[in-house]
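Quick one:
INPUT:
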């Protein structure tokens, strides 16, 4: 590989390394332990999402079952 072809790659690497060094404290804030109260809030939000997903799935199944039952009754 020629020097000219590897120069853009080295530039991207250097810029990335500079950004990581400049923003390392921001990354640290994402890796610190989560307090218990926040864990409880997250678990409640996840539970609500799972409940809504289950309700949507049941509604879809019921709708499909009703349309399938109506087609079966029409043929009979």
């Amino acid at each position: 590989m020629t020097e000219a072809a590897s120069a853009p790659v080295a530039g991207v690497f250097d810029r990335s390394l500079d950004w990581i060094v400049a923003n390392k404290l921001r990354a640290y804030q994402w890796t610190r332990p989560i307090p218990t109260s926040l864990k409880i809030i997250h678990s409640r939000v996840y539970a609500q999402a799972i409940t809504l997903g289950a309700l949507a799935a049941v509604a879809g199944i019921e709708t499909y079952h009703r349309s399938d039952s109506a087609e079966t009754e029409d043929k009979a």
